[in-house]
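Form P-L/3: holo structure prediction, ligand adenosine-5'-diphosphate.
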Amino acid sequence: MIEVENLTKYYGNYYALKGVTFSVAKGEILGFLGPNGAGKTTTMRILTCFFPATGGKARVAGFDVFEEPLEVRKRIGYLPENVPLYKDITVEDYLEFAAGIKGVARRDVKNAVTKVMDECVLTDVAYKFIGELSKGYRQRVGLAQALVNDPEVLILDEPTIGLDPRQIIEIRKLIKNLAGRRTIILSTHILPEVSMTCQRVVIINEGKVIAVDTPQNLTAKVQGASRFLVKIDGPSQDVMKELRAINGVERVTRRDEYGNNGVGEYVVEAIKDRDIKRNIAPVIVNKGWALLELRPQEMSLEDIFVKLVTKE
Ligand SMILES: Nc1ncnc2c1ncn2[C@@H]1O[C@H](COP(=O)(O)OP(=O)(O)O)[C@@H](O)[C@H]1O
Ligand SMILES: [Mg+2]
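OUTPUT (holo model):
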């Protein structure tokens, strides 16, 4: 549904995009993840025909962004980073106005607005002025204006930025409900966002794509070797020594600060591609110590992100 090929963008002589390539399948929610300044907004502005790229290709629903911008615009809904909303107009009037601009036929406007207000849970505030709304509601109005012409493709630039935790959950729920019929790109610099909302992630850094995968595969790939969290009741020094001596163990670190005797939490890392899971318990039990917990420790997306970005 969306194909981006070797996209470049210079601002003056500053390279904001250095050849970005990725694609999004119909009905997919793609997470576009990267730190501030990575080039997310720039890419989205090119896709929404806000400005042209310096080089490369982009197609949306089969239409070239540069050659057929009108066709592309008809099929795209865009929630920009900072939604420019009018304050002295009611939600309903604003959405009718937005529908008009987006070429919804006059006789269909009422229906379109009613539907989109229902979808974005705005019906209760239809007659309120936008200036009176909380940030969470305003963001929903932004989402509603992006949806009002029933686009196949939705481009959402940091849709949860500046919202409180409860509002974030609501917006995420809305976005998830929009999936399936629509193809969505959602940018964020917040990691948990993508694992909660997206099926696939493109990670971008300094204008280059550094990873494309499912959140699960990214974890497996970057992690490489397996790690376990082991909780043991035993003398710390001896426990560390025994754990380090286990066949296939690369590194052991103490994780807690309980003190040197009694219960301790240890992270046991395996040498790449070695399975150490079965080797841990017998050693502990043999020594007469109590094994209170043994579980795999997955890397968080945060760890992965830092690892990928610093590798560059
Ligand atoms: N209009 C502009 N003129 C000059 N530099 C810009 C402009 N817009 C963005 N940049 C620069 O391009 C880079 C990418 O910006 P942007 O696409 O906004 O990143 P992101 O959305 O990932 O935070 C940044 O270094 C930013 O400072
Ligand atoms: Mg941005």
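COMMENT: The two ends are 29 Å apart (CA to CA).
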